[in-house]
């Protein structure tokens, strides 16, 4: 990374300010990374839990579907399905500037709003089982997406920290050391030049120096 540093003492002040800013930014990013990692761990565990719940609900729903099919055939399944869709809304939250889904609300069609149900004792619990599976699937979907978002943000923040620590910070420190060395050499050269000018100045006679003896 090429730095455009102002010349002279202005460059030294510029570098010192940049270093202060970068070090403060690293402190902020380190705190953010710790929070993100905690959230990532929590959300990853939540995604695993909701996945297990979803799989279990799907297995239960499939068992009831098999019973309905045996008792009423495919026609019973088609009639029970109806033609109305569920209404889904996703609610979001924020953690250190990162938005992720936290909750889903779902409005399902009323049971009596669909076509008349065939007479089979398995149909009502089958529909209930599929509603449970749908809600479990929605819950897992937002949990998995939240974990994905937090994992990506954690990785991105970690890359930014590494870039600052491994590239920008060393470049600024090296540049500041070089500027300070150059300024020290210039100051020593100015002192030596002033001393030589003082030593080479002609000496005035004693009477001109105020000695009237």
Structure notes:
Helix 1 packs antiparallel against helix 2 (123-200). It is rod-shaped and about 125 Å long. A hairpin with a 2-residue loop joins strand 1 (87-95) and strand 2. The longest helix is centred in the C-terminal third of the chain and has 78 residues, at 123-200. It has a two-stranded antiparallel sheet. It is mostly helical and 213 residues long. It has helices at 8-81, 123-200; strands spanning 87-95, 98-107. The model has no long low-confidence stretch (mean pLDDT 83). The chain contains 2 helices and 2 strands.
Helix content: over 70%
List low-pLDDT spans: none
**What count of helical segments does DSSP give?**
2
The fraction of residues in strands falls at 5-15%
Terminus-to-terminus distance: 70 Å
| Global geometry | rod-shaped
According to DSSP, the number of beta strands is 2
- Radius of gyration, rounded? 38 Å
Calculate the mean pLDDT score and round it. Answer: 83
- Judged by helices, strands and strand pairing, the structural class is mainly alpha
Main β sheet profile:
2 strands, antiparallel
Along the chain, the helix and strand elements come as HEEH
Instruction: Give the strand order, joined by hyphens, for the main sheet.
Output: 1-2
Please give a handful of descriptors for the protein shown.
mainly alpha; 2 helices; single chain; 213 residues
Give a quick precis of the structure.
By secondary structure, this protein is mainly α. It has helices at 8-81, 123-200, and strands at residues 87-95, 98-107.
